[in-house]
Amino acid sequence: MPDGASEAYPTPDPGLQLIAEGVTELVGFGAAVINIRRGDEFEIVAAYGDETGHTVEGEMTVAEMLGTRFPVSVVTELLEMSLDWGDIKFIPHERNTIGEAEGYWVADTDEDIMKGSQDWHRLDELLAPFYDDAGELVGVLSIDRPTNGRRPGRRQQRILNRFARQARRAVLLTLQREYLEERANNLLEAQSFLREANSQLGFTAVLEATQEAMSRGLDADGLYVQARDGMGGNVWYASPGLRWSADDYAGTGIQSYQSTRLWNEGLHRIINRDILRHTILHDKSPDQRKFAQLGIDFLDAVEADSLLVVPIGVETTALGHLVLLRGAGRPRWTDAEGRLAMEFGRDFGRIVLTSNAYTQERDLAQRLATADKVHSRLIESVAQELHNPLTALTTGIDAIRHEDRGSTTWFQQVGNLISRSDQLVAMVDDLLLFSRFSDPSSRPTLAVVDLTSLLQEIFEQRTYEAEKRGIEVTIDVPNHGVHVLGDRSEIKAAILRLVDNALVYTHRGGHVRLYIVESASEAAISVTDNGVGIPAGEQRQVFHEFYRGTSQAIGGRKGVGLGLSIVDRVAKRHDGRVTLRSEPGTGTRVSMVLPLSNDAASLG
Hints:
By secondary structure, this protein is of the alpha+beta class.
């Protein structure tokens, strides 16, 4: 028992008091008291008799001794002087060197001179020490002043030994009750703390704020928690200071205690080294022996000796489980503690549910806020980008009305109008694609796509534009088909945007190269240029929607800031990825990497 397990008894413990009364009334003694250990002291919790005695503090009746304390060392020293009468130990006065020690009660009597060798002396003492299953001294029955004035004979010794055994059982039950009451009180405190915890902290934050109260409430040396996070995944948490990771935990097999089954059946599980060792030595199933060895390895890793696994849930919904640890030398988990922890699991389940609901609400609010920002940026970007070409179109249309049809100026104005119209069409195409790829219900139409022929097609389509800009474009593709499973129109749109970006940001006289590189499972479609490049600080941001970098566009205008974002989304929709490498003033390489389709059935 920990120090200060309970307050001093204002009234005697009923069960223990009955035993004290039996010793005095039925066996014939003037005083009997029962003590329970409280740390380094014994507390008198039951006292009966009509004797008056004294301590160093003064005169005191047996009844007045109730609730008083004295050092454990008094009892241990007396036991070292005792004669063994079985459960009862007799300390004859000639061996008793303690005398009237601090807190030690001695009956008042003038009979210091004994008439016979079996007469009772006032410093004679009878003690029945009580030890728990671990061998720790936890209580003692003290008996004094036989009514016949003589030391107990064999018959009285046998009866006293019976009372001693009954008293030991009663003391151990009392300690167990106190222990469980303390656990229950601490549990209620922890439950109250949890209920008052700010559920809006989120699941992990609630655990961090309450783990100390939980460990104290359940008398655990540490705890692990696995629970559903409300988003279809799991959240793992361990008490600070424990050597643990989610991977280690999953590998032990502890997870095989399925939370749903435990919750539905209202069960908890107790695991300790003895059970696991017995399984290793005697179980015929190799899988069970392997699981037991994993359990031993896990206990060694976290320096624990026993585990209590408790399901977490609400009503019919299992939400996870709680694993409580105790180290070597600590009491093993009991079913009674497991039942207390089950109630805790129900309360904790409500915390998890509330936290998950808040997390979902918070994430939804964040997504809505992000969507609102994207919407605002979209409107702003579209307004800015449409303003100039629309103004130019309006100005051009107005100007062309005043020019002679077929004149040089007239043809220049028409060319400008066509260029502005093309720019508007490209912007609208980007916006339409972005809208399509942002729709969760939109899925690519999958078919086998030959990247070799697709890249050759794009090369031919952009050759004229490259020649107008004075940029050399080359292509390097395998002499065989390179096949992926995907939506051809989406992949083509993504590659076109890579090529167009390269043309816009490359100087006249520059070079753009299109090529494909294969590996065993992937194909990378790459577009490189020796253009202006992208500053290092912007290379992550260029994939964000509506981000337009600081690099100067050459021979054209920047788009609406969706090009690389569209490429990135197309790659992800095809289980691929995009890589970028760039050096300002040297050039840029962007690659879209897609998984190869080698399925013969697909190719057919």
